[in-house]
Amino acid sequence: MDAPVAGDDADLIEALQNAGLPTDDLSETAGRFFAYATLGGEHVGYGGFERAGTAMLVRSLLVRPSARHRGVGGGMLALLLRRAFDDGGREAWALTTTAVSFFERSGFKPTPRAAAPAAILATRQAARLCPASAVLLTRSIRP
């Protein structure tokens, strides 16, 4: 299950910083962020997205170390993409330096940056926060 959290939530920021993920623009973005928990109430991570028309950029998908290797990340991503779809997103984009295979297992395909919508490339995440070595991936979002 998921619950909305503010971009400036102290626990979200601390978790992202501990994982080495960018936090500089969280309070400035129009992104939506969520905290994830199991049905038993175990807090397992965070994720978010930033919409640009029907395109959306996956933001800061983070599985807590204690919840890794249990399929939790795939479930979190599925919930996040459903939230994005319900919000009008039809195309998901992700930038990563470490989780390419995770996103590929979830149907994302590596894509040249030149193929991304200008609005995705203009996000602070894509334009300044992620290194040029980050891989850009995309997939469609369907119900």
From TrEMBL:
Domain N-acetyltransferase span(s) in chain numbering: 1-142
Domain of life where this protein originates: Bacteria
InterPro entries, per database record: Acyl_CoA_acyltransferase, GNAT_dom
MF terms in GO: acyltransferase activity, transferring groups other than amino-acyl groups
Pfam families xrefs: Acetyltransf_1
Protein name per UniProt: Arsenic resistance N-acetyltransferase ArsN2
UniProt organism field: Denitratimonas tolerans
